């Protein structure tokens, strides 16, 4: 039955992780993996998560099904974190939110919802974008198109080119996928003025924005990172938002995310939400409970919430501090290239500006593992490896 099947190539980033693990060089550095690491190279469990799990261990009294949307009380947590408590969209009922298996699960449900109900819609994504965006929507039968985003010549944003392409090529009813903050893979974010321009454009051209908020809190702050998203949400009629709790709660393997739909009225939001429920039922039936229970326990306790906010700030400050150190140490190493743009990027990732040849040389001769695109995970840098990293880059770049 399966004799005709041919094995497909695996995810290149996963292959990079495997290659790093198999490397025997004691100085090896993994800058490919997409998780937060502390200065010891460990992905820690947050103290607040440990405390919440202890509470759940004492209080949980059932493992019964929760329903397709997950825990009903979790909906308010998603809304409040994305939009802010008391937001008019929440009080008016124009937003509905469901728990999903991570941000990827939210995007998959959104893709199925779009495919079934917005049949002629195309999805526009940044070039480049997160590697799984296209696969998720392609598999649902949604046509995916690119808009310009990253400029390798300046290591910056091609906003004028982005808008020119969208102006010329989008059609009414298309979807525009935007990264809320900490753009993956480039680290180059839209500024607030860009969000204003895009909001006007979405309204003028009749587009549906889909915002991916996977890294809230890792850029400039929990509220600051979603300022553009919140402006757009307040000024458009319809919107989809996929968010993840994997990074800012450090619960990657628990698969906890959310999908929110904003509509012109509470009735329209309820109708869309019910259809999203059908997509969930046909997909995974119910999201995993533990991660959401942990998040709910933290967010419903003023003490734990305040402590969690400090933990997120500590992770953010460490990453932003590493960016500053990288720029300073690369300059001190005598490298010919100006890497100052790295400190202006946000989030765990950086498009380093390294060429494919340079990346492969770093890998083969120095055991430094960076994606072929030049994307590196800043969280993989530590005080113990930063000097070796910068010296190696200087030798390769010149």
TrEMBL record:
InterPro entries tied to this protein: Aminotransferase_I/II_large (IPR004839), Asp_trans (IPR000796), PyrdxlP-dep_Trfase (IPR015424), PyrdxlP-dep_Trfase_major (IPR015421), PyrdxlP-dep_Trfase_small (IPR015422)
Xref: SUPFAM superfamilies: PLP-dependent transferases
Residue ranges of domain Aminotransferase class I/classII large in the record: 27-393
Cofactor(s) essential for the protein: pyridoxal 5'-phosphate
Recorded GO MF terms: identical protein binding; L-aspartate:2-oxoglutarate aminotransferase activity; L-tyrosine-2-oxoglutarate transaminase activity; pyridoxal phosphate binding
The entry's keywords: Aminotransferase, Pyridoxal phosphate, Transferase
One term under GO cellular component: cytosol
Keyword Transferase: yes
Domain of life: Bacteria
Gene Ontology BP terms: L-phenylalanine biosynthetic process from chorismate via phenylpyruvate
Xref: Gene3D superfamilies: Aspartate Aminotransferase, domain 1, Type I PLP-dependent aspartate aminotransferase-like (Major domain)
Pfam families: Aminotran_1_2
CDD domains: AAT_like (cd00609)
Family: Belongs to the class-I pyridoxal-phosphate-dependent aminotransferase family.
NCBIfam families: PRK09257.1
SUBUNIT field: Homodimer.
Name this polypeptide is given: Aspartate aminotransferase/aromatic-amino-acid transaminase
Organism: Marinomonas foliarum
Lineage: Bacteria, Pseudomonadati, Pseudomonadota, Gammaproteobacteria, Oceanospirillales
